[in-house]
Design a protein that fits this description.
about 425 residues, alpha/beta, 8-stranded parallel beta sheet, 6-stranded mixed beta sheet, about 20% strand, binds N-(iminomethyl)-L-glutamic acid, binds fe (iii) ion
């Protein structure tokens, strides 16, 4: 007979962030769901109770106790938009941009995403795995326990499958839970520069069926942007993905508006991501839908843009907002969700509690894992971070400082 798992209680934190509050902060309601002096009871890989230490001790008199010396206990970050599996960094392009050459101009010159494509095509699956491990370790050190990772630097069937297979292997090799997204529509490969619809045919008829057949991705994403995928091409790819069981997501209105948020809402996408140039109609469309507005301010910060996505308007209209890093070698070499929450507060008018919730629960919803990750509540996976801070607001306020003291993934201490 299998013995019931032993229950452990984490006690002694100054504050527990349950992240179970509402999306918007009001005088009465706290999005971060802060519990002063709270404790968390864990059974196996799952949280079974959150409350004050005395109540939990009474409820579980035989539980083992793990004592923390102050600090804040929070759910692990759910980083719901990354391109963390790639070949080399592109600091050369950053240097160019700092002298005034725009991101899209670098792309037109054959750099940008296409330079990462040349690079990744030349690497073996083993190389890709090896290069990715230290980056995932960096993300874990930042407190991330769930991360979405996109393909999209392959842009041919073999290289896209190689990337997704590398992601699958990485899933078992390190503690972060990786959620794979197929982004074969990240750019048009050089071979199809003059036959864009021909490449869309390959995506729809060859790549998506192959990805689905091997069960290599959960989501399907497209970079819909003027000069890249237009609306008709984007919709064709996303609908083909849906026909194969892949849930749609969209890089939407990143730098120039093109009605992508509206398409995401219409098609029932899990999320519309970026939204730096979303229109008022787009805001209303997302607010009236189940599609999460995933904001990636690190990208606009790194690209040196002055404006940010209208987080306040989205929240006030009732949209679900997520914050994520967009960790990638081009537009956002930022691996720290804590830094992103700081930018969201200082540049986008979000409160610290709203930002903390958006980078946990918001991300979980964008990955269709609500209640399972991103919260400290009964039934959630025991993914926790112990922060060396006195209160929750210090996490965004310290802009990505290395304040993570410990990380647990599925109940197991991994850092
Ligand atoms: O989310 N917009 C497209 N994709 C990435 C950038 C990728 C890159 O530059 O390598 C983004 O910003
Ligand atoms: Fe992206």
């Amino acid at each position: 007979m299998q013995r019931p798992e032993e229950i452990r209680i984490l006690v002694g934190a100054a504050e527990v962030l349950t992240c179970t509050g509402p999306a918007r902060e009001t005088e009465q309601e706290d999005p971060a769901g802060r519990l002063a002096g709270g404790a968390v009871a864990i059974e196996g890989d799952e949280v079974v109770a959150v409350g004050d230490a005395k109540t939990l001790r009474q409820r579980y008199p035989d539980a083992a106790e793990e004592r923390l010396d102050g600090g804040v206990l929070a759910p692990g970050w759910v980083d719901s938009h990354t391109h963390a599996v790639f070949g080399r960094w592109r600091a050369d392009e950053f240097a160019l941009r700092c002298t005034g050459v725009p991101y899209m101009e670098i792309a037109r010159r054959g750099g940008g995403i296409l330079s990462s494509v040349r690079d990744l095509r030349a690497l073996s699956e083993d190389d890709l795995v090896e290069r990715s491990l230290p980056r995932l370790a960096e993300m874990l050190q930042a407190g991330t326990t769930t991360a979405e990772v996109k393909s999209g630097y392959g842009l041919d069937t073999e290289s896209e499958l190689k990337t997704l297979r590398a992601i699958r292997r990485l899933n078992g090799m390190q503690p972060i839970d990786l959620v794979p997204t197929f982004l074969g529509a990240h750019e048009f490969p050089p071979e199809y520069r003059d036959d864009r619809d021909g490449y869309v045919d390959v995506l729809v008829k060859e790549m998506i069926p192959a990805v689905a057949e091997e069960g290599l991705a959960e989501f399907c994403d497209v970079f819909m942007e003027p000069g890249v995928y237009d609306r008709a091409q984007s919709e064709r790819v996303l609908r083909a993905g849906m026909d194969h069981g892949l849930v749609p997501k969209l890089h939407a209105d990143e730098l120039e508006g093109s009605g992508a948020a509206e398409l995401a809402a219409e098609i029932g996408a899990a999320s519309a991501d970026h939204l730096g140039a979303i229109s008022e109609t787009g805001v209303r469309a997302l607010a009236g839908s189940e599609t999460v507005a995933t904001l990636l301010p690190g990208t606009l910060l790194v690209l040196g843009r002055k404006g940010y996505a209208p987080a306040r308007a989205l929240l006030d209209a009732g949209a679900t907002v997520a914050l994520a890093t967009d960790f990638n070698p081009g537009s956002s070499p930022i691996s720290s969700p804590a830094l992103i929450t700081g930018v969201a507060c200082s540049q986008m008018g979000m409160s610290p509690a709203e930002a903390l919730r958006a980078a946990t629960v918001g991300g979980a919803r964008a990955l269709r894992r609500e209640g399972k990750v991103g919260v400290l509540a009964p039934g959630a996976r025991a993914d926790l971070v112990h922060w060396g801070v006195e209160g929750a607001s210090e996490i965004p306020y310290r802009f990505g400082a290395p304040l993570v003291r410990a990380v647990w993934r599925a109940g197991e201490r991994v850092l």
